Amino acid sequence: MADLNLNPKQMEQLLGVVSAKLGVAPESLKKDLEQGKFDTALKNMKPAEAATFNKMVSNPKMLEQFMSTPQAQALYQKLTGGK
Questions:
Q1: Residue 33 lies in a domain
Q2: Going by fewer Cβ within 10 Å, which terminus of the chain is more open, N or C?
Q3: Is residue 67 part of a domain?
Q4: Residue 1 within any structural domain of the chain
Q5: What letter would DSSP give residue 2?
Q6: Dihedral of the CA atoms 5, 60, 29, 21 (nearest 10)?
Q7: pTM of the full predicted structure?
């Protein structure tokens, strides 16, 4: 799997981008994700996207494969501004 260890600044940047896309406060999204709750993220997704997301996060092998793809790495770079 690609190195996805983010420093705190990178994590905050990514959280800011994702929270803006979902229309929720970064603090609220961070709290929910730290507690393993994906409700905040899922409620703003289309049903098919939410189902795919749930399937992926419940399968560590599938999640690792996804995060290793060039597309996922490119998305990460885009979301973080290449930092």
A1: yes
A2: N
A3: yes
A4: no
A5: -
A6: 90
A7: 0.50
Q: What is the pLDDT of residues 17-60, one digit of tens each?
A: 888 877 888 888 888 877 878 777 777 778 888 888 778 778 88
Question: Mean pLDDT throughout 2-30?
Answer: 76
**Contact between residue 58 and residue 38 where contact means Cβ atoms under 8 Å apart:** no
Tell me which residue range forms the domain holding 18: 8-79
**By 3-state DSSP, what share of the chain in percent is helix, strand and coil, each rounded to 5?**
70, 0, 30
Task: Check residues 11 and 80 and name the one with the higher pLDDT.
Answer: 11
Residue 56 near residue 72 (C-beta atoms within 8 A): no
Give yes or no for a contact between 37 and 24, defined as CB atoms under 8 angstroms apart. no
| Structural domains of the chain, count | 1
| CA proximity to 62, closest of 71, 50, 53 | 53
